């Protein structure tokens, strides 16, 4: 979900840091959607526990998608006011989802 053309004027950053951050979150979301599709492909082989993996990865991707515009707006305003902090909550939730996916993946392989 790229920011609109008018939104780029919200900050004076010549390096376009909010745009780079938005692109990075977009790549993370795309990776999670791809992993979700792979999990669905594994459903016949590993059974219903795979649906839990799919739910976590698809839910995380959806969370990134639906909060992307808010994160961009906050980042742009923070740069303009020269008081920008990293979105630690989003990073921690994404890292937590990665750890949960890893643990669930190991569990599914060991069970099946």
TrEMBL record:
Alphabetized UniProt keyword annotations: Membrane, Transmembrane, Transmembrane helix
**Localization per record:** Endomembrane system
Ranges that cross the membrane: 24-42, 48-67, 88-111
The topology of this chain with respect to the membrane is: Multi-pass membrane protein
Query: Major place of localization?
Result: membrane
User: Any idea where the DUF202 domain is?
Assistant: 13-75
Asked if Isomerase is a keyword of the record, the answer is no
**Identification of the protein by name:** DUF202 domain-containing protein
Q: Which organism is it from?
A: Pseudarthrobacter quantipunctorum
